[in-house]
Amino acid sequence: RQQGMEDVNLVSNEIGDTGAKAIGLWLRESVTIDRLLLSMNHIGEEGGRHIGSALTENRSLRVLKLGLNDVGDAGAISIAKALSGGHRLITLDLGSNGIGDAGGSAIAEALKGNGPLAHLILRVNRIGDETMRVL
Questions:
Q1: Is the terminal CB of the chain with fewer CB neighbours within 10 Å at N or C?
Q2: What residues contact residue 21 under an 8 Å CB cut-off, 6+ apart?
Q3: What is the rounded CA–CA span in Å between residue 25 and residue 74?
């Protein structure tokens, strides 16, 4: 296991789904990462699924910023599964990711009475009014 990394800023590096898969594998091995900034990287649903899956194993991450990507409902649902399984995230930015009601509902369900999440950013998605009220 790797130790000693606190902040990783990969904003606007066009890593795409392939890079997100590699980061997902790395997250499974990283013990001490605190903040992971992946905004504006062309990460799609597949990449979102890899990141979400890795979050089920990485318990040190406190801030995850995935704004301005395209993880869609599939990525949001995968991340929601991680949120429901116990986590330390205090900030989750999924703004401008093409998330609709399915992804928004999964996140709302995962957050019911769960975890320390204090900042959830979902602006500029396709989440309807009814789902936003639940959130």
A1: N
A2: 46, 47, 50
A3: 18
CA distance 70 to 79: 13
SS3 sequence of the chain: CECCCCEEECCCCCCHHHHHHHHHHHHHHECCCCEEECCCCCCCHHHHHHHHHHHCCCCCCCEEECCCCCCHHHHHHHHHHHHHCCCCCCEEECCCCCCCHHHHHHHHHHHCCCCCCCEEECCCCCCCHHHHHHC
pLDDT tens readout for residues 90-119: 999 999 999 999 999 999 999 886 677 899
Q: pTM (2 decimals)?
A: 0.93
Q: Of 121, 122, 56, nearest to 91 (Cα)?
A: 121
